Amino acid sequence: MSTQVGLSGSAGPGDAFDSDCPSRAVLDHVTSKWAVLVLVALSRGDHRFSALRRAVGGVSEKMLAQTLRTLECDGFVHREVAPTTPPQVSYGLTALGHGVTGHLTGLIRWIEEQLPEVSAARSRG
Amino acid sequence: MSTQVGLSGSAGPGDAFDSDCPSRAVLDHVTSKWAVLVLVALSRGDHRFSALRRAVGGVSEKMLAQTLRTLECDGFVHREVAPTTPPQVSYGLTALGHGVTGHLTGLIRWIEEQLPEVSAARSRG
DNA sequence: GTAAGTACGTACCTCGAAGTAAGTAGGGGA
DNA sequence: TCCCCTACTTACTTCGAGGTACGTACTTAC
Q1: Which chain D nucleotides are covered by protein, judged by CB under 7 A?
Q2: Does B31 lie at the interface with A, CB-CB under 8 angstroms?
Q3: Model confidence over A16-25: pLDDT tens digits?
Q4: Residues whose CB is less than 8 angstroms from the CB of residue A4 and which lie 6 or more positions away in sequence, other chains included
Q5: Right CATH number for B22-124 from 3.90.1230.10, 3.30.230.20, 3.40.50.720, 1.10.10.10?
Q6: What are the UniProt keywords, alphabetically (chains A, B) (predicted)?
Q7: Domain map (residue ranges) of chain B
Q8: Which positions in chain A touch B119 (Cβ < 8 Å)?
């Protein structure tokens, strides 16, 4: 008997430890190389495409567009187009987006603060 | 004049938005596909190699060993070998490991709970 | 006239992340 | 006797994430 009741399907919360659970895909999207930084950047306020690209150091236009599309599809980011010439597109977080990003900002801040400890551990190990 | 003072080098906390900052590497390690699940699994207590492999659904032996080595190198995981035959190796979190994992468990729990919302958004988008 | 910016889409290519499979060395069970 | 279990390592292979580069349609600036 397992101590865990595995309800597969749409009922109940997901189980990220189950390789078939759709939460795995969401986890992969959210923790992907650029998504973390994009989400945290957007938590500081709405950004235009180019502003976002400047904020997230090292991201290519292709990957930024791709990351934004994925996050928009998952409902974390909303896209707003102003009908000017040229069209000005601005990105921001949805309510769902603010939810995940809360955890991510905490994570990033922790890493930035504990970086000396990690570097020390790495040079030891 | 930029509004941001960029102190590169070892002084002060890192800046994950700078592509040259070493915190990027740590972020990539911690948010990698398997590291998230391994860390959260270990937060529930020490695990042997095979137990860990069973806990984290879908991970191969190679990737588990590789992930554990990276996390051990960064000082998040400690490895303990019991001098029995065959040697029993057990893995657990260090103090540093408990620090990051706090944020990760929050993230995973949030995703598992909000999965219906995300799925709904995805089918809409 | 030319260059640069805005907001992407698309094509091409590379390199490494990750999967598969097998080897290792000792011990215990069928 | 032979296979399985533990805890990995190594070799081979694949596939896709991600980089580079260019196109687009329009505007502003020099």
Answers
A1: 5-11, 17-22, 25-27
A2: yes
A3: 999 889 999 9
A4: A15
A5: 1.10.10.10
A6: DNA-binding, Transcription, Transcription regulation
A7: 22-124
A8: 10, 22
Measured between CA atoms, how close is A101 to chain B, in angstroms? 9
Query: Closest nucleotide to residue A32 (Cα to C1')?
Result: D17
Q: Do A70 and A45 meet the contact criterion of CB atoms below 8 Å apart?
A: no
From A29-43, A69-83, B79-93, the region with the lowest mean pLDDT: B79-93
In 3-state terms, what secondary structure has residue A76?
Answer: coil
Query: Residue with structure tokens 């790495």?
Result: A122
Distance CA A74, CA B92 (A): 33
Residue with tokens 């974390």: A76
Report CA torsion sign: B46, B49, B55, B58. Answer: positive
| Full-model pTM | 0.88
A68-A69-A71 Cα angle (round to 5): 65
pLDDT at residue number A36: 96
Would you call A79 helix, strand, or coil by DSSP?
Answer: strand
CB–CB of B105/A106 below 8 Å? no
Amino acid at B49: F
On whether the CB atoms of residues A112 and B23 are closer than 8 A, the answer is: yes
- Taking Cα atoms as reference points, which of B93, B95, B32 lies closest to residue B64? B32
The reported pLDDT for the residue numbered B14 is: 81
Q: What is the DSSP letter of B20?
A: T
Return the pLDDT at A59.
94
Q: What average pLDDT does range A104-110 have in this prediction?
A: 96
**Token pair of A83, please?**
């009908």
